[in-house]
Amino acid sequence: MADILRDHGLLLLIGAYPHGPLGGLAATLALSLIGIGLAFPLGVLLALAQLSPRGAVRHPAQAACHLLRSIPLVMLVFGVYFIAPLLLGRPVAGFATMAATLVVFQSAYLAEIVRAGLLALPRGQAEAAAALGMGYGLRMHRILLPQALTRMRPSMVGQFVTTIKDTSLGYVIGVHELTYAAAQVNSSLLTRPFEVFLLLAGMYFVLCFALTQLARVLEARQLRVQALAPDIRRV
After folding, report:
1. Coil vs helix vs strand at 170
2. Rg of the Cα trace of the chain?
């Protein structure tokens, strides 16, 4: 496998760039960052909408989250790939299609993470804020959401790991991400598919394992903070 890395390492890392589109591991990371970065604020809005006291806001948000979480990602990829050009009246690049799909899909899962984080907070905090005259939006912005987001950091990192693995589905619509680059390497070698895809699995493993360890470190730190919290309150 060392010779595969030597001869095709750049293709696996950045694709055909700068003589072609950005691909390989760089495209995978770009898709993941765009997917999580844009899905996060949308997920927060969906979570707040699901907890809204107004049924006209709550019910559509709940329906949207349930629908998105019930559809396999590959079906959503194909749906956006074929429907987006019809709606826009022009072709849409595969990278943009995959990025938009990840944003929509991950926002539903992030919304559940945020909602669970908010529901896990002591109810007394929301009741005390309401007693002080704070409305729903102000309570969320000033009191509840900052605490929930701090507690959700490990889960957010875990969702980022999931997003990295989900980018591999871009292969089915021709997105030049890491799996697509490995398929190109395999096509040029022809006789070494096991080594090529074992190398691909190893790259995904190293990347996802590093992020998983980061999530564990954040979780351990959060548990230490929570353990110290009663002592701080007594002081």
Report:
1. helix
2. 21
Residue 13 CA to residue 178 CA, distance in Å, equals 8
Rounded distance, CA 177 to CA 168, Å?
Answer: 7
User: CA–CA separation, 185 vs 217, rounded Å?
Assistant: 36
Write out the two tokens for 37: 């970065």
**Judging by beta carbons within 10 Å of its beta carbon (0-12, 13-18, 19+), is residue 152 exposed, middle or buried?**
buried
Percent of residues in the chain assigned helix, strand, coil, to nearest 5: 85, 0, 15
How far lies 72's CA from each of 166, 169, 225, in Å? 11, 11, 37
Tokens of 30: 């770009």
The reply to whether the predicted model has a pTM over 0.90 is no
Q: What contacts 21, CB < 8 A, 6 or more positions away?
A: 15, 27, 95, 176
Do 222 and 30 meet the contact criterion of CB atoms below 8 Å apart? Answer: no
Q: What digits encode the pLDDT tens for the residues 188-217? A: 887 788 998 999 999 999 988 988 888 788
Alpha carbon distance 140, 118 (integer Å): 9
Per the listing, tokens 């007394």 go with 124
